[in-house]
Amino acid sequence: MTAPRFVNVGIVGGGLMGREIAAALRRWPALIDHPVVPRLTAIADINPLALDWFRSIDTVETFATDYRDLLADPNVDVVYIAVRHDLHEQLYTDTIRAGKHLLAEKPFGIDPSAADAILSAIDATPGSFVRVSSEMPFFPGAQAAFAHIRSGGIGRVIEATSSFLHSSDFDLDKPVNWKRQVRFNGRAGVMNDLGLHAWHVPLRLGWVPQRLYAVLQDLVPFRPGPDGTLVPCDTWENARILATVAQDGYEFPLTVDTKRIDPGQKNTWSLTVTGLDGAVSFSTAHPTTLRVLTRETQPALGPLAAEQRWQHVQVGSQSVWPTVTGGIFETGFSDTILQMWASFLAERDGALGGGFGCVTPEEAWSTHRIYAAALASHAGQSVVAPDFAPLAKADVATSATTTGTA
Ligand SMILES: NC(=O)c1ccc[n+]([C@@H]2O[C@H](COP(=O)([O-])OP(=O)(O)OC[C@H]3O[C@@H](n4cnc5c(N)ncnc54)[C@H](O)[C@@H]3O)[C@@H](O)[C@H]2O)c1
User: Which CATH architecture has domain 136-331?
Assistant: First the structure.
């Protein structure tokens, strides 16, 4: 047996996601024959109290309140950064220029010009390796749906819907936080927060929107601030984008929904695609079940032989990288985080093969162009073609091309 090759990981931002990733790395032995073993060696958070949670992890040697100290640590190979969106550009570009490999959090900069700057830093840094976080497509059912679509199992696509739905803001008395304020979260609002999860699979399938129409909703304009008085909650809560995708000489509609207030939902990612040969549907609300519709006739069904049938396929636990978890067992959010990291570090190591990879910088960058088009569409009540040409630092909403009125 060969000795494990260690990859030293530093985390910047020890909040919700920083802790989630630290916990996932502790479950690494669940993966079978992964080429590398990550070891969390450094944590940086501007808030010293946030560092305390990490003190029980015996591999962590560097505790920093300035992320630049973590970047200067030669004992860190890979950095994961989970901070407010307005900080992405500075921290990501500093990390890339420091020669560290990066798993960035979405939305990959607060706006298109920030995404431009991050992409430029990658282009200017030989040997950089950057991917962006989007774990929901690592549910086994999502992987099975992706594989079925990509294999042509549903034939020519009729239409597709991809969504990520919450109702975490259903409580109107919930205090405001940075994710509900434009200056920290960005003008794209809920799209910045949830959009990358919903665009990851469509973009990976090559479904780049040609033109789109968007309806955005600011349902809760004020929320209690730290002292209980109401302060602006100025982000879009819900966004529906209806896009057209050109494929093989024809177009189909792609609907992408991201919602913070969708009563009944908790943290639901779903994908439904219909085609001339069948359909496939998966929702994390029913994580063990993939729904597949085929056109094959089944004589044993007698008079129902030629009827349409939705089949429920139990997908079990296995996703991109094999694990010791029994194949029949159920999967959950923390499993998808582990799978995303397995994919990230395998790809970095050149060992992912044809496996499903994390969001690329270009894919994340293009979502900002889509959100800019959605903002312009909503503002002008018009159909807009996303502009995928690199932009200068300018008002992105006015840079998208208006092509008609819906
Ligand atoms: N992939 C997912 O499912 C998922 C879920 C939630 C959030 N996110 C993303 O993760 C990122 C962080 O979100 P969160 O929910 O963990 O936020 P959070 O507010 O829980 O944590 C952010 C942490 O960053 C620290 N921080 C602030 N400024 C800093 C600086 N200059 N240097 C170092 N640390 C600093 C804060 O003290 C805090 O501990 C965002 O980009 C968000 O969109 C991803």
Answer: 2-Layer Sandwich (3.30)
